[in-house]
Amino acid sequence: MPSISEVKKHDNANDCWVIVNNKIYDVTEFLPEHPGGQKIILKFAGKDCTKKFEQIHPPDTLDKYLAPEKYLGEVEQNSDEEDEGEEEEEEELDEEEKQRLELIERKPPLSQIYNLNDFEYVASKVMEKQAWAYYSSGCDDEITLRENHFAYQRIFFKPRVLRNVTNIDFSTEILGFKSSVPFYVTATALGKLGHPDGEKCLTRACFKENVIQMVPTLSSCSFQEIVDERNKEKDQTQFFQLYVNSDRKITQKIVENCEKNNIKALFITVDAPQLGRREKDMRSKYTLDASNIQNDVEEDEGIDRSQGAARAISSFIDTGLNWEDIKWFKKITKLPIILKGIQCVDDALLAIEYGVEGIVLSNHGGRQLEFARSSIEVLADLMPILKQKKLDKKIEIFIDGGVRRASDILKAIALGAKGVGIGRPFLYAMSAYGDDGVVKAMRILKDELTMNMRLLGVNTVGELNENYLDLLNLHNRFSSGDQLFQQVYEPLKLPAFKPK
Ligand SMILES: Cc1cc2c(cc1C)[n+](S(=O)(=O)[O-])c1c(=O)[nH]c(=O)nc-1n2C[C@H](O)[C@H](O)[C@H](O)COP(=O)(O)O
What we know:
By secondary structure, this protein is an alpha/beta fold. Helices cover 38% and strands 12% of the residues. An eight-stranded parallel β-sheet has the order 9-16-15-14-13-12-11-10. Strands 1, 2, 3, 4 and 5 form a five-stranded mixed β-sheet that branches. Strands 6-17 form a two-stranded antiparallel sheet.
């Protein structure tokens, strides 16, 4: 068993050992293949990188992807030396980091959190910079990111009164599976950036509140950890979000593993042949500056490693995915297939033609194509056409993006959505307050649903339809403003008066 001092000797690009969970690995040959670039590994060459590693990767990653002989055994236990890896992390505490740690101590109590935006605010103050950047970022100027939320504010209600609204029931079925609410926790990657338990925290809260969870391909926890976290006694419903791998054998194995683990539906993400340019994520220095790594590693040509966490973890995604692949999926699995990331009427009609069970109208939370329209707007276009073609009962339609209030959820249901996916709010609640935060976020939405339905004049979500909505203004988008342009724009000058 090598000692820490032995491990320390292997600290460069030509001879690189790291420690993860007390296990030593020789990653020298793996360096050039690491999707996240060599720098992030070389920062921990000869050291313990467990903390950083586990934020991004499921614990079984190295055992899964490295040849067995690269595992060099456990660290000799009685090594009296402390490993610097974590220590160095401590030393680097800059002013901002010190302030963040101090704010964690002064965090508002959960009892002071009244809505989902409160979670976002607290998370923005207490999360590590890189984590906040990754979760909050949208693509380019984040116009679509903001439009996702603004679009809901252009829809007003036409409430009905003098109806007995004593017994409110917002439960529903999603793809035939019971759900206490018409929303689900959508797939968002890298849960451990926000919380040490990552996606397992969401699993536990979903069980407590009987909310369906969509398990992401790019989770920090391993798939097995997440499905094993489900409540044993109750048949807790989980869906799986699939990024299709260029190597279809890998994808087929993942789908078979989903079936083996009682996953109830497959949400194939179709809006990300390449992940968007999320500049907050890129700027958060996911891949570290070369300056603090003394090594002769040349930056790899080709992939621009400075693309933040997103690009670093997604190089496997198949840019060649196309409609013909749907036939292949229908051959290899009996699971209901839902296409996540449909963004126009024509593709929704194609999805029905290809016989999928559902679609998610989504622009990936504004993280993919800038100027993609909000999903609520696409839904408003789509439903009248489906009804006219008598296709509205052929598939279940979900939407996600920018949902922050129960009123947003009710607008989507009234327009014909079967359910609504919510992403960032549950990440922020998890990052700031753990399990209790996520449960509280779900309960806030349930309280808001009860109030809004009562004031709308409906007892169940089944009663909702577009007659409760005023859509007049929905398509009158205003631009929420290009922040960068506004910051750099130099206003015109007016003629100067002659000096006195
Ligand atoms: C916030 C967030 C969203 C991600 C997400 C990661 C984060 C941090 N990631 S990403 O790394 O590729 O971008 C995924 C993902 O793994 N797969 C996916 O289908 N959607 C991904 N999405 C999109 C997500 O499923 C919803 O479409 C989006 O979050 C809905 O918008 P709100 O966050 O405003 O609710």
